[in-house]
Specification:
It contains ten helices and no strands. With 226 residues, it is mainly alpha-helical. The chain is flat and about 95 Å long.
């Protein structure tokens, strides 16, 4: 009887040890996965912030802010006169950089405005409209043409998206259509998916990229800003 109890006790100890090791291994794996997810999210957010900062430098608001700074620098230079030539050179350099940034932003905005008009006059966009009236989805060649014209106008659009998240084909196609300002109900038709599926794709992508819940409109605004 004592021998049987000893055997049972040894077996219980063995199972306890195995169970403890398994728990520790699972805990370590869980922690490592959690850290990996946090790191990936930080990297995505860094890329998003870099993209947003690049876009902000070209915004009308930034152009107006630069104009105010330029005016302030011109006033300082006027008051400074010929005194302190070193400070004068520094102020003139700052003014020149702001002036150059504004000129480039204005040119870029004008180019983009003209290019966007070209999208809505393109053969692929007219084809898209025709398919909508017929209630049909885009074909493979249509998708390739749409992707090409979007990337020609919005340089690096596809590259930016895939640098943030490894999208499925459906994810990418929804983003393409958002970029050319197609309405959600029409996106559903052109991708041969339900409106609910398209809405789910948009909100899911926002949460994947930003690490928090957002509306479908939040995702659309982000895509339009690229």
């Amino acid at each position: 009887m004592n021998q049987l109890m000893t055997i049972l006790t040894q077996r219980e100890v063995f199972l306890l040890v195995i169970g403890s090791i398994t728990y520790i291994v699972l805990f370590i794996v869980t922690v490592q996965n959690s850290r990996r997810k946090i790191l990936l999210l930080r990297q995505r957010l860094d890329k998003v912030h870099a993209i947003q900062e690049e876009n902000e430098t070209k915004s009308l608001q930034r152009i107006e802010q630069n104009k105010v700074k330029i005016a302030e620098l011109e006033e300082l230079l006027r008051k400074l006169g010929d005194e302190n030539s070193m400070l004068r050179l520094e102020l003139e350099e700052k003014k020149a950089k702001l002036d150059y940034a504004n000129k480039m932003a204005i040119i870029e905005n004008e180019k983009r405005g003209q290019a966007e008009t070209a999208i809505f006059e393109s053969d692929v966009y007219l084809r898209l409209k025709q398919l909508l009236t017929e209630g049909r989805s885009l074909g493979e060649e249509d998708w390739q043409q749409l992707s090409s014209i979007v990337n020609n106008i919005y340089t690096g659009f596809t590259e930016k998206l895939y640098s943030l998240y490894n999208m499925s084909e459906q994810d990418y196609r929804v983003c393409l259509l958002i970029k050319v300002r197609v309405q959600p109900k029409d996106i559903a038709t052109l991708t041969a998916h339900s409106k609910e599926s398209v809405a789910s794709t948009r909100s899911r992508l926002y949460q994947k990229i930003f690490g928090k819940k957002g509306s479908t409109r939040d995702w659309d605004e982000f895509i339009l800003s690229l």
